[in-house]
Amino acid sequence: MPNPKLNNNVEIPALGFGTFANVLVKGETCAAVLAVLDAGYRHLDCAWYYLNEEEIDAALKQWFSMNSSVKREDLFITMKLWPHLAEPEDVEWSLNNSLKTLGKTTSIGVSNWKISDLEAMLKYAEIEPMMNQVEIHPFLPNIELGQIETTQETPLQNAELAALAEKKGVLAVPPKSANEARIRSNFVVVDLSEEELGTICKAAEGRHYRFVNPKVTSGYDVWPEESS
Ligand SMILES: NC(=O)c1ccc[n+]([C@@H]2O[C@H](COP(=O)([O-])OP(=O)(O)OC[C@H]3O[C@@H](n4cnc5c(N)ncnc54)[C@H](OP(=O)(O)O)[C@@H]3O)[C@@H](O)[C@H]2O)c1
User: Fold this and answer.
1) Which residues are annotated as active site (predicted)?
2) pLDDT over threshold 70, residue 214
3) Quick check: CB of 52 below 6 Å from ligand 1?
């Protein structure tokens, strides 16, 4: 699968690795990041909220010291500001904090934005966001949003879905696993026939089920219209 390019010409590896892991298992993320880099992943999805940037930093330093042919610029690392840190001084703190551990930034994006909010923001934004990271899978196909460049979270760790995501205009998927064998098997993309794609799309028709809602993780209600 060729790496897609963002509007600013920065390449984003289509298959990434999600680092939201169990913070209580010390060293799990470090071991996982070493395994994913060995397996060939070059895109890590991170966030201060995941409370493991230090482990990722340690894994990167260790891995780079053993793999000098790969450079920091060969890796695409996403980090996220949490929505409760929206005051200017909080944004500055969070950005500096992540930059300190994970390095400089090439592209700015958003996450969990809906189309109406993106349209409103583009009227005043001085820098156009390059990406909208949202949940996409057959239970939440998000077809309209999928026409905009997106990273797909919660991809159900499935190569067929990664292929579907690419055909639907979704740029990149970051599956998560702490298991070395699954880390390797998740890094394979299979080609799907039109018929197979049709079957998956048909299963998605009329569905709208969110597995991850920031209302629960951060109290930030992005989709009040979905609340019962
Ligand atoms: N921007 C946002 O608001 C947001 C929200 C949610 C997620 N994300 C990003 O998306 C990433 C993925 O999130 P997620 O919710 O999809 O992951 P998840 O549910 O947190 O983790 C994936 C689960 O699937 C298991 N798994 C992995 N590969 C498998 C396989 N081949 N077969 C069976 N089970 C498998 C993993 O277990 P093992 O570890 O034991 O393999 C793990 O329990 C996150 O890490 C994060 O980076 C972003």
Assistant:
1) 50
2) yes
3) no
